[in-house]
Design goal:
The structure is a homodimer. The first copy, chain A, has about 280 residues and is α/β, with parallel strands linked by helices. Chain A folds into 2 domains: about 1-175, 3-Layer(aba) Sandwich (Rossmann fold); about 180-280, 6-phosphogluconate dehydrogenase C-terminal like domain (6-phosphogluconate dehydrogenase C-terminal fold, Orthogonal Bundle). Chain A has helices at about 10-20, 35-45, 55-60, 70-85, 100-105, 155-165, 175-205, 205-215, 215-220, 230-240, 240-260, 265-275, and strands spanning about 1-5, 25-30, 50, 60-65, 90-95, 115-120, 140-145, 170-175. The first copy, chain A, is globular. Chains A and B meet through helix 7, helix 8, helix 9, helix 10 and helix 11 of A and helix 7, helix 8, helix 9, helix 10 and helix 11 of B.
Chain lengths: ~280, ~280
């Protein structure tokens, strides 16, 4: 299978590594608008060749769009336009974006919609760029397929095989419910980490103290605050409606707990913590 | 050195492991009000013998008080009373509590205050009980000594050697500034995790979806929500004043960011994230 990857960052690059060594990909060509990223990806050996977007679409059986969500919408539409224009009915384009509804709406009425598979591999780190690419990044994680009934069964099957090669478990849902769920379990966590980092940085002008007192607890809660603005700004904007609701629910919880503390209501604090402990059953 | 540990949980138990194998402790006796904890600690081999609190004070050169903060205040005072009554001027009592001001006030005027060393080893996990005790838990972490000028130089020196054996770096500060700093870098993180867990658990009645979508991001932000109510309820209450202020500052940050998202103010979102990214210089 000839693979083309548009966007040679953490996700695109990590896919390249495992698709190649697990022999799913016979060849991998890559595109990146950022010349530093592009040449790093070539030097590291993530891709065999750097090409233009046009060439990438021409040479590849599967085109993986792994750019930030705002750009992805345009790229996927452009690729579908090209499929239509050239009469390429066997090629497949897939994206890996963290928000699914806006791109679903943008592609909904495209003549070649069935050649597009909307996916979201739920894996990553707080780092970015081709030098952050890792082998085994996707192993045992979950990949969401959104609105799979809009894609041709053959395209879904091919992309499923691709994710099998990445050792991912596949879960199907609508793009709308994907965006609600990710607002809760991923996007909100990022909002919280950014806000925590800024709260602490604002107050602790003497950074030595942060460092001294930053035990494991703080480091893990604030870890996501290292995530990058290019990726996350468009995600927050695209998932605005869900995220605002979810953030309001969170603020209310924090406020409730804060009031329990202020009132020294031991029973209420204890029951809030006991409730939260139920997360043990779900997260290891 | 003969060591007595009152409170055979994660911290007391982990200290026992390393103090013994690094040959700081010649013998270790233990006390725990919970018979299940106590007998587990003996069975695991954390302590040589289970004794009463009275016997523990009698047999030990250093008494480590590792019970939750609410109880610790009473235990430390009781031990100091005993020192005074028996005329034991060479014994030392130390605590390992996460809040330092209330206990500082409670002991301030005690005739034997100089035999008490107030410490907070900044290490732990989200688990509790003697079966959670780990070797190397304290390695390379920081231990705070609070108000060390109130303790005798000899007592400070002896307890410093104990923490040397645990491979900790020692940092000195007043109990008041300890409690402000820990409110920011430890207690707030816990408030956030508990609130996040409850937000998500409330909304996601179908827990399978949480599990499916819980990528690394959520797991790390919510990790502390597994922490236990017996330990954290009294910490929150004892550090109420600082914690309420800090939580208010955090709520304001979340609100600001939420408003930027609602207004789709890309520049403001981006600059909020860029600011938060400065945490990279501090946290690895």
């Amino acid at each position: 299978m000839n693979i083309g990857i548009i966007g040679l960052g953490l996700i695109g690059g990590s896919m390249a590594i495992d698709l190649r060594r697990r022999k799913f990909a016979d060849s991998i060509v890559g595109v990146d608008a950022d010349m530093i990223n592009a040449s790093a990806a070539l030097r590291i050996g993530l891709v065999d060749e750097l090409v233009s977007e046009d060439e990438c679409v021409e040479k590849s059986d599967i085109i993986i769009v792994a750019v930030p969500v705002s750009a992805a919408m345009k790229v996927v539409c452009r690729v579908l336009d090209r499929f239509q224009k050239e009469g390429w009915t066997d090629k497949i384009v897939m994206d890996v974006c963290s928000t699914k509804e806006p791109i679903a709406k943008a592609t909904m009425y495209h003549a070649c919609r069935s050649q597009y598979v909307a996916t979201h591999p739920m894996a990553g780190t707080e780092y970015s760029g081709p030098w952050s690419a890792l082998p085994n990044l996707f192993d045992s994680k979950v990949c969401i397929f959104a609105d799979q009934e809009e894609s041709s069964p053959k395209a879904v099957e091919t992309v499923s095989r691709l994710y099998d090669a990445l050792n991912m478990r596949i879960s199907f849902m609508s793009s709308a419910s994907h965006d609600v769920h990710t607002a809760y379990v991923s996007h909100l966590s990022h909002v919280i980490s950014f806000a925590l980092a800024n709260t602490v940085l604002d107050k602790e002008k003497d950074e030595k103290h942060i460092f001294d007192l930053a035990s494991g607890g703080f480091s893990s809660t604030v870890r996501l605050a290292k995530s990058n603005a290019d990726m996350w700004t468009p995600i927050f904007i695209q998932n605005k409606e869900n995220l605002v609701k979810v953030t309001d629910a969170f603020i209310q919880k924090v406020q409730e707990f804060r009031d329990n503390i202020e009132n020294m209501d031991e029973a209420a604090i204890r029951s809030f913590i006991d409730e939260a402990n139920r997360i043990k059953r779900i997260i290891k």
